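Sorry to interrupt, but I need a hand with the structure work. It will help me judge whether the discrete encoding reads sensibly. Write everything out right here, beneath this request:
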Amino acid sequence: MPTLRRGSRGNEVRELQKLLLKWGYNPGPIDGIFGARTEQAVLQFQRDHGLAADGIVGPLTWGALQSQQPGYQMYTIQAGDTFYKIALRFQISLSSLLAANLGIDPNQLQIGQQIRIPLPGPGPEPGLTRVVTGWLPYWVQSLAFQSVQNHPEIFRSISPFWYVMTPSGEVLNLPNAEDSTLLSYTTSRGIKVFPLITNSFDSDLISTVLNNPLLRQRHVQNIVNKLLQMNYPGIDINYENLYVRDRELFVVFVQELKAALSALGKLLIVSVHAKTDSTGAWSGSEAHDYAGIGQAADVVRVMGYDFHWQGSGPGSIAPADWVDAVLAYAVSTIPRNKIELGVPVYGYDWPQDQTATSVTYATAVARANQYNVPIISDTLLGPHYTYINASGVHHEVWFVDALYFGTLLDLVNKYDLRGICIWHLGAEDPRIYETIRAKF
């Protein structure tokens, strides 16, 4: 391999970046450009392996990088860290963590210090029995990311809203896309990032691409290019509100994308509208062919919420009997080990005869306290209450708390699904994480 240094470009740099990432060092995007972040990763690798720390990748550094598969990843000590907390976070034994860091005094850890985290060996992974992941909307990304940082041991992966498709098949960045802090954090903790691509709920937009084979192939290739550039393990396709006439073409697109991703070892996740039969309650749900999508995709996320929505009358966002019926239909058409239930953690506040506004758990509880009204607890429908504001307008509020969240997790267990995806992180009752531990 050629000697590489800052400013180098090409496939050899891309290979270098992949090796650094495999060893647990974050070189930034896998883009074939030897920039400052790649140089810092090289320097740290060299220091950790007793090499001359010059940032230049010559024969000795290449040899170390290409030696046997690393048995550990690197982790940078943060404020408040202890070996005990780190062992819990990465679901490893304290003794294995100490053994991997001989010579380091666990009572004298320094912020910024790097330690080794043993990688899990063969066999079943400890911890939760089901996958827990979550969506991070770009408009509240900082808040949603905080939920991940507060509970890194819970999340197997996350899906930030980072991309949007165009009528020409391009993949454009949304605000806050490719956030380096988020990527560095998740890499250090073994949390996979499956970014989401949206069609902005635009029926015409996705229809234009689906009905033109050249645009469809261009879109597939642009998705592939993005995954290669950023070294993502896969993608979440969130194309909603399709025309019913595009039902079969959407399956063709999913099949074509899956073929392209499989060749690269990447995973394909597809999010679908909830329904209790093949037709569903509206055109968007009918346009999602569960059987066709479920056969092609690696994971199908069934969005089990908005039974009552902003434009409807007030009521439960995800009634337990409806979610039960949704899952009964889903497992009849999709392998259950591919299904993740999209679980709500938000709420709606409906002014009388008006469109609702979305509220977080904290806002819903604070509003009840503000108007001094009791919250009615309901394990099958979710908590709710009514109030009259200062203008005399009657309001009805429905939301999700940890108790009702647990009811939905019981249904996931009942149907033995792969796991859940939370919509959306940052809006939740903080007690749901204890519920997840108890149920999963």
